[in-house]
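Can anyone check this?
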Amino acid sequence: MALLLALSALAFTSLGSLYTMMRAAERSAVLNDRVKTMEIALRQGLSGEVEAINADLLDDRLPDELEAAFARFRESLAEARDVALG
């Protein structure tokens, strides 16, 4: 009987560890996705700026495009902070 209780406690502890590891892996995947989204947003903003400079097209579109790219970046950063802290 004691052996059964000991094995049950060991199994329960192992399940808790597995759950903790799965939550950490899930959090890591979400953070990785948010970082990639931030990187894409920054690259899009910079790409638009470079194209505008090369084409000498510094018109009213560029600030809007940059603001949209950086808005996506800030949104992803806020989501990453929520995941990391929460």
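Reply from J.R.: I decoded it. The CA atoms of residues 44 and 69 lie 7 Å apart.
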